[in-house]
Amino acid sequence: ASAAWPQQPFDLDTNFRLNAQSVYLESILPLPDGDVIVSGQITIPGEWPVEHSGARLHADGSRNTEFQYGYMGGKITPWQDGYYCGNGQGIRRFHLNGAIDTAYKPMYQIPYFNIGQGGDYYVFPDGRVLVSGSHYLQDSIRGFVGEYGLIWFTNQGYLDTTRVHRRSSAAIFHLFPLPDGKFICSGYAWNFDGHELASTAFRVMQNGALDTTFHGPPGYVNIKAILPLPNGKLLISGDPSWLDNGDTLNLMRLMPDGSMDPTFHSPGVRNFNPVLGHSANEIVRSITPLGLDSYIITGSFSEIDGQPRASIALIDTAGNLLDNLFNGPGSGGYQWWETSEPWGWYNYIGGLVPTNNGNFYIYGAYHGYDDGSGTDGSSQRLISRLYGLNVGIKENGTNT
Fold first, then answer.
1. C or N: which end of the chain has fewer Cβ atoms within 10 Å?
2. What distance in Å separates the CA atoms of residue 382 and residue 349, rounded to the nearest whole number?
């Protein structure tokens, strides 16, 4: 922080800055040596119109120029001495220097499989991968022909012919692992594996079969983040798409069977777009427990329950806004492509990730970050480092 203010938890660390113009970061991976790998769509001053889909940054935010930055852009998942990363509609595996791991076959080259609409993926400890979306199989030998929403791959990237792949009527965009090995799925599918669905949020067993004991909130439920709680409940966030009752809930708590927990206060989330005014583009993108009694949420919003908050806020475990952190102006927006169209406006924080030394990164699509301490954060772009706490962020929330 600046000399005029004492350093406080979550204050901006101005020793880190990415020299970028735009556009967004989708995912980041802090490394033990202090570097951080980032994935998204990045433009660098002086390199226009070249866009980088990935980069490795040093501890001050400068780029590691030896990093091979191609074929990234999506979610990063660490694995052994490398990582997987979403790339277009598929995924690839990389070494930490950014080089493609040639021991993992590119999805467009494997037999029996054609890439369709991309979705999400999950990496098992042995390197096997479960992929969602809406892709096409041509494995007539084993009877898998047509459109499938959950597909299994070996740790070499080939279609896993020992597994039962699962059909869906439309793309499954998000895949969230649960502590018991099951998964929550979210997307456009109204029919999965032959079952009609009342909600586009549903749960599958470890083998991908539909869990018929779980009944998600009815309607189109576009989940962006899930926090499993110790008592089997789920804290979920996303965009305002619970259409059956006309609600605009961005954050809710579910009972173990998927029904809404009426004891949780779903905070009112709003987003101000300078082109549209108050728009329906509010999205809660991440949930991070802070200790045992609060959660940090990030996303596309400018106010919570009528109080100003720019893309990051603190709530208690009952869903009530707290004032002891993130009271500053927060992230700043920008207009991309110099267009007046609503889609040209960016201002969101996609997530909060701990570093290996107790600090935190925020990342997303923003220009400038004001923590309220008087520190000049106007030069911050897409990713910032915040000072940490004496106590760490826990993995699980309270048992409420």
1. N
2. 8
pLDDT in tens, 317-369: 999 999 989 988 899 988 876 555 556 788 999 999 999 889 999 999 999 99
Place of tokens 């009528």: 306
Interval 283-297: pLDDT, tens: 899 999 998 899 999
Pairing mode, if any, of strands 201-204 and 294-300? unpaired
Tokens of 58: 């040093």
Confirm whether pTM is higher than 0.85. Answer: yes
pLDDT band at 4 (very low <50, low <70, confident <90, very high): very low
β-pair partners for 290: 294
DSSP state of 63: B
Rg (the chain; Cα; Å): 21
Tens digit of each residue's pLDDT (9 = 90 or more) over 75-111: 999 999 999 999 999 999 999 999 999 999 999 999 9
C-alpha–C-alpha distance, residues 222 and 243, integer Å = 11
Q: What is the DSSP string of 152-204?
A: EE-TTSSB-TTS--B-BSS-EEEEEE-TTS-EEEEES-SEETTEE-SBSEEEE
Tell me the sheet residues that pair with 79: 82
Which residues, in sequence order, are CB contacts of 236 under 8 Å at separation 6+? 184, 201, 223, 225, 226, 227, 251, 252, 253, 254
In this structure, what token pair is assigned to residue 63? Answer: 């780029």
CA–CA dist 96, 82 (Å, integer): 5
Q: Which two tokens stand for residue 324?
A: 């002891």
Q: Do the Cβ atoms of 399 and 29 come closer than 8 Å? A: no
Residue 2 has pLDDT above 50, yes or no: no
Q: Which helix (H) or strand (E) holds 119?
A: strand 113-123
pLDDT in tens, 130-189: 999 999 999 999 999 999 999 999 999 999 999 999 999 999 999 999 999 999 999 999
DSSP one-letter code for 394? P
